[in-house]
Amino acid sequence: MTTAFPNPLEDQSRPKKNVDPCILVIFGATGDLTGRKLVPALYNLAREGQLPGHFACVGFARRPKSNEEFRQEMQDAVNRFSRNRPVDPDVWQSFNNQLFYHQSEFDQDEGYDALRRLLDQLDKKFSTKGNRVFYLSTQPSYFPLIVEKLHHHNLIYEPNHPQGKWSRVIIEKPFGHDLQSAEQLQTEISKYLTESQTYRIDHYLGKETVQNLLVFRFSNSIFESLWNNHHIDHVQITVSEEMGIGTRGRLWEESGMLRDIVQNHMMQLLCLVAMEPPTNLKADAIHAEKIKVLNAIRPLPLKRLSEAAVRGQYGPGYIDGKEVKGYRQEDNVSPASSVETYAALKLSIDNWRWDGVPFYLRAGKRLPKRATEIAIMFKRSPGYLFSTDTNKPEPNILVIRIQPDEGISLKMNCKIPGLSQLIQPVKMDFQYGSYFGSAPPEAYERLICDCMSGDNTLFARADEALASWKLLTPVLEYWASEKPKDFPNYASGTWGPKTADELLMRDGYQWRLI
Q1: Which active-site residues does the annotation give?
Q2: 155 with 167: CB under 8 angstroms?
Q3: CA 249, CA 329: separation in Å to the nearest integer?
Q4: What are phi and psi of 220, to 5 degrees?
């Protein structure tokens, strides 16, 4: 009989399919994220019985639009982007009646007054008990303004409301532009929101394989006993994308790869790989172990930064045999831009478990394939029992694939059948889709559902965001003061600049071939 271990990133005391009645208000509802991710996620939750029985969704944006126009646009988006297609007409009809649109400028007091009246009406119609989730899917500069307006118009409640009502705010990334702006943003929103009401979303934490990391580590003693500097040689974390920046030229010119991917997604992955076992499965215990990892990361040596941090920018090249343009030729990008589309780091964690184990992180646009993975590179077996001049056993590698083809593989050495003593690496491979018979749910489905049920385990805490910015802001400032002279320094369709290879070669390593 197979035993199913509980997911340590899930509160087992909470019913999986029952969350509190509420209204979800999406600010910036005409943006790409709403149609591509948020509303398809809500539809899938409704389809699988995960939405509360009493629910409504209001899109808040500046463009004039009727309820019917918004509903039709969202239906088209769900037909295009939902993981469950074709759309079930019965499910959609019920869900469609729960969708509403509210037009207002983000700084318009009359618009918030009208929103409050609309929400009161929907409370009575759908019996949502006054509970609110506000999803801020706007430009980051609007975050403090929207939170202030929500508070001013009594749309955010005090914690422990006498009538049991609650309000929560989901904040999309980026949370700040650097350490100073993140601290300022935290100061502004904390005037009106407690930490328990603030949900800083990082969709990577909602991915099934990321949630499984702690289950894999702490429920399998065979691996946890090896999870230290006695057995692990180094760790590689890769986020590779085939796409360029597309229509995000203006946004990317203000961010770059270090801000867009490394500071949030990759640092969260590193924390889950490196953290100590939490004392329990509650959110605070898990957050406490993650912040210990971030605080233990050695500051990067600015005087020798090239030995620990590398940046790159893609030029023209070929993806899947098709010619593509370089970053500086993309729309709304400066022809002399020094913004990085590739970043690689070597990080060291100063604690007993990881002393001497380097963590190599790389993330890039216009690389040969789309892939996100964590590779645990074990030390070579001692001695030369099976080593010859032509055949040497390779080190064992444990790979956790986050996207695509979510799963886990372990590379180990085996003897090739025959009279010789030749050794060949083979893989033990597990894939979520093939083993469990269905694709894992989208990350936004899990995260939105968790917020509605008050579980912030899979959201970043304030001190985590600030600790990550504290580590990386000096790098951003150094790069801003020292403009690169070799951009673009890698062709589209290649694995990044040569300096990224040299980052590992200095230590006798090379990037894993994905």
Answers
A1: 265
A2: yes
A3: 10
A4: -120, 95
